[in-house]
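Figure 3 (text version): structure tokens given as input.
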């Protein structure tokens, strides 16, 4: 058994033992991975994860998580149980409300002040700063003016207090990197009094979001709960005193060392190109003063954009996530791939597209820019479902474009001269799918598309396909 398998086994047993009283077995991730190069040798494995598994992966990847759901579901108590099972008594707890201030993250030694010391000398960071894990309860009960003050705390940045005292959250791992796992719980919606909308900047500080209402307890869970004397989970009854951070830190390093399949790397970059637009003079939707899908539909007389119609209008109705999401979702996908190898050692040693796609709904929920009309039409009014459908459509579009470019990329990798038709084919892919190109490509196409003119062979410019370690990957017009 490899070291990471031993560490995962210890964490899993601790979490399941110390949270056994919390009854919730609904699967949150369920996907398949197939091995083998042909039908005879192929084996299919079903990977399933419940809430406990998801939080273990969140911890070993350092991915901050928001758990949302109806009040009374035991989110906070369960969170305490999970954190306690991994870090013993060494975790912080913050109750958010309108009175919260940065001052609650440090202690003042009044004896030092009485002895003539300066305020900066009399301050020390308290547990929420120095602990390896922190629970932030009812995060959205603090107004945005308050939550904005702790953005640095959420991002492990230096915090400056009154008097000039500074502190950096978290603990230093053996590899020299700083670590602090943050787990926030919220009740969200108009039915809850005293709560505030969470702005995009705050959501972006957390890597994944788990909407508990999307994963209600199973019938078996409800029967088991009814059989108990008390429906309330009491983590105090099985409280742990063991600090398993060494196992968490080793697993963090193992997660970091996981490699991504080249297609996954390319797809994650493709996602960040979702704002590419060849109808924009600058090549991006972000530079329109007021981007609307009327631009895509061609109400200016140019006719409907060729990229707009296919795959449910995702080019126009769905925008790109922020750049910071790329690496953080990749890290969580690596944790999932490591877990998958722990359960099924014969499966690939790299992060596959199946692993990555299994994570993106949790990682991009509330972070993809999806138009309200698209959410209504394709998600049935649910942003959660719309995120899933959008990512499936985006993946299918990516794979279709990749397939169209593959013969040309293989030709370039062999050092063969590209023909004028090859260059036309590349430009046709970029027109159908701007996310496959880069901003300069979109600007060039815009200049030649102005007025609705189609590119002809005499106008085609030289095309360069730049090879990389993983083979020919980048196409530039």
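Below: residues designed for each position.
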């Amino acid at each position: 058994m490899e070291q990471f398998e031993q560490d995962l086994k210890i964490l899993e047993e601790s979490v399941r033992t110390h949270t056994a009283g919390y009854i919730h077995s609904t699967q949150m991730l369920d996907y398949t991975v197939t091995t083998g190069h042909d039908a005879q040798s192929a084996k299919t494995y079903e990977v399933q994860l419940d809430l406990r598994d998801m939080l273990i992966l969140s911890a070993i990847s350092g991915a901050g998580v928001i758990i949302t759901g109806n009040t009374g579901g035991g989110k906070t108590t369960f969170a305490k149980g999970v954190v306690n099972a991994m870090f013993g008594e060494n975790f912080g707890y913050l109750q958010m409300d309108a009175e919260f201030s940065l001052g609650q993250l440090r202690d003042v030694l009044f004896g030092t002040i009485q002895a003539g010391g300066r305020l900066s000398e009399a301050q020390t960071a308290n547990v929420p700063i120095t602990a390896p894990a922190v629970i932030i309860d009812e995060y959205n009960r603090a107004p945005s003016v308050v939550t904005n003050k702790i953005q640095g705390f959420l991002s492990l940045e230096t915090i400056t207090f009154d008097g000039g005292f500074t502190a950096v959250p978290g603990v230093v791992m053996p590899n020299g990197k700083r670590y602090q796992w943050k787990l926030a719980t919220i009740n969200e919606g108009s039915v809850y009094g005293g709560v505030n909308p969470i702005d995009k900047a705050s959501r972006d500080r957390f890597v994944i979001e788990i909407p508990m209402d999307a994963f209600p307890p199973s019938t078996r869970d409800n029967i088991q709960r009814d059989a108990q004397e008390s429906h309330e989970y009491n983590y105090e009854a099985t409280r742990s005193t063991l600090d398993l951070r060494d196992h968490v830190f080793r697993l963090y390093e193992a997660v970091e060392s996981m490699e991504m399949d080249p297609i996954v790397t390319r797809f994650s970059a493709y996602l960040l190109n979702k704002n590419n637009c060849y109808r924009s003079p600058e090549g991006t939707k972000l530079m329109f003063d007021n981007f609307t899908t009327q631009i895509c539909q061609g109400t200016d007389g140019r006719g409907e954009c060729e990229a707009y119609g296919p795959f449910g209008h995702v080019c126009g109705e769905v925008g790109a996530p922020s750049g910071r999401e790329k690496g953080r979702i990749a890290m969580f996908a690596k944790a999932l791939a490591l877990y998958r190898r722990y359960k099924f050692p014969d499966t690939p040693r790299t992060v596959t597209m199946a692993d990555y796609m299994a994570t993106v709904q949790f990682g991009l929920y509330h972070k993809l820019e999806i138009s309200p009309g698209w959410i209504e039409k394709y998600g049935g009014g649910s942003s959660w479902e719309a995120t899933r459908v959008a990512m499936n459509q985006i993946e299918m579009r990516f794979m279709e474009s990749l397939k169209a470019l593959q013969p040309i990329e293989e030709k370039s990798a062999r050092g063969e001269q590209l023909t004028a038709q090859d260059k036309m084919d590349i430009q046709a892919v970029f027109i159908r799918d701007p996310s496959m190109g880069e901003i300069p490509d979109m600007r060039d196409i815009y200049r030649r598309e102005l007025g609705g003119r189609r590119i002809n062979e005499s106008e085609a410019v030289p095309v360069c396909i730049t090879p990389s370690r993983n083979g020919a990957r980048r196409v530039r017009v």
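Confidence is low (pLDDT under 50) at residues 108-115, 451-477.
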